[in-house]
Amino acid sequence: MSLRLLNHGLADRLPTELWDQILGELSYTEMIKCKMLSRRFQRIVRAMLKMYKGRLGALALANVEDSDVPFNECKRMLHRYHQTWEVLSGDMGPSPISTHLPNHQSPPLILESGWIVIEDLTGDLTFAKIPTISSLHDPIPHDGWSVKANIRCHQLPRFVAYQFDPSQDLLVILGPSSLQRYPDIHVLTMITQRPHPLAQHSIFDAGIGPLGEINSFEVYQDLILIFAGTDEDRILRVWNWKTGEDIFTLEGFDALGDLATFIGDRTLLLVQEYELQLFRFAEDDVVHACDLELPRFIEPALQIWTTVSHPLSNVPEPGRAFVTDPDKGIVVINMIRSVPDVAPDKRCSIILAIRVAALLAEARRHSAPVAEEAYSDPRIYEVDRSGYACSDSDSDSDSDSDSNADTTTPEVPIVMWNDWGPQNARFVHVDEECETPSTFGSRCVLLSPSCRDRPAEIVLFDFGLDTEEISISTRTHALSSEWTVEVVSAHTSLDMSGWFEDTTWVVDTGLPYRVRRRAVPELPNGACIEAALWENGIMVKKSDGGQCEYFSMSMHGSTLPP
């Protein structure tokens, strides 16, 4: 009945109040037909979505029994319009991607392989392919993203975190065990959600104690990284998901933030206050390690986020739209610090960008096999201010040292800052306190929150580039005029004399960068709180305190949604 009305040309003549009844009878396939038959369809669905969100908010404050529309019915209709809108709003323009999501839910997980996964209101996972200009085989769809799979929550075990790798048909889930105390790792396939055929144990104990804060959860080849715990009890574990074996455990150290990430070549980077720790995992699971010294700041870091990203190559790879170039990759470390000699509540971001190739070269050149005890006890190893490796036992007598020579834990090699840093890293001072960075290719995006005298800003860095345009694979894209630009060439100095304990630190660098900024327009009923970057777009998260929405924005787009 409904489609017959539309097919007779009546779609654009129907009053809006009749659409509520019509939409309740349509399947998703019929909704797509309605979209083609009626120019008003998307606008009507959006209006209905807004109306039911308003009703649901009003009912939450009123007596449900006294309302004309039952609360559960209103919630059901809101969820239906939410699903309908997701079907219709897959384009790369300024329109919502997902609406009515609680603030505590994680932002969409974006992989450089051109994939994205979004967790919706009900706990379902939607896996989609981002249209990538680097793909040689898949044309960019006119309607934006192409949905590859939708996994219902009842098909999955309960989870608090997940990671996936389409090239291995791999979905790894971290969730509570049947005893509801300690978490388990589930190794599944993306396609069937059944145990992965290469995993000897599809479920095994994560070994991190009761579920708490999950700081890092990554998958790299056959390795799984979990970094979790509270400020006083951090633990880092690396598992081989094919064998289910725990191949590395680190605990008892002081850390704050998202500090651990794989950077390639089976190498793990762990960011600490005074050094970068590199761990290489050989095929036989022997761990090699070395430390790279960092300059000592006057003020300790309040929070640290670490991301790694590689420029793109146009060589195809199975399961991926493109491959990354590890020789040109960039690690971006964002450190929130108090500004010296200023009010205690004044904070800013210090960005440290490092060439991935340099880190891997140092790890191969200097790392040595070490026992886990070299890091499990924080008293064993530290770096003094002169930059020489020492241990807490240095004050003991020589005779004691000689007598304990056979039982001493091997020292971890350390490389001084002046031997590796100036030519491969760059510090960037951002006046505002920016939180989680997002990287893609050679770019990094930060969202500087709004304050009294200025709106929120998107800060976009290009490391290793001196040109005026963004080069990706074989195509070049310029940003719109709303962006301001500053290019900082290589071999320039940054005045960090007020930040470091030692004013003799060399902060010249061979790593150029470009920074672009644009103000984020004020959005009604909410503010932008986070930004994520992919190849040809930016995802912006808006929150009103209780709900959040995600918007996509073209890199060269001039507007955000109203």
UniProtKB/TrEMBL annotation:
What top-level branch of life does the organism fall under?
Eukaryota
Q: Where is the composition biased (Acidic residues)?
A: 393-403
The annotated region (Disordered) lies at: 389-412
Q: Where is the F-box domain?
A: 8-55
Protein's recorded name: F-box domain-containing protein
State the taxonomy lineage: Eukaryota, Fungi, Dikarya, Basidiomycota, Agaricomycotina
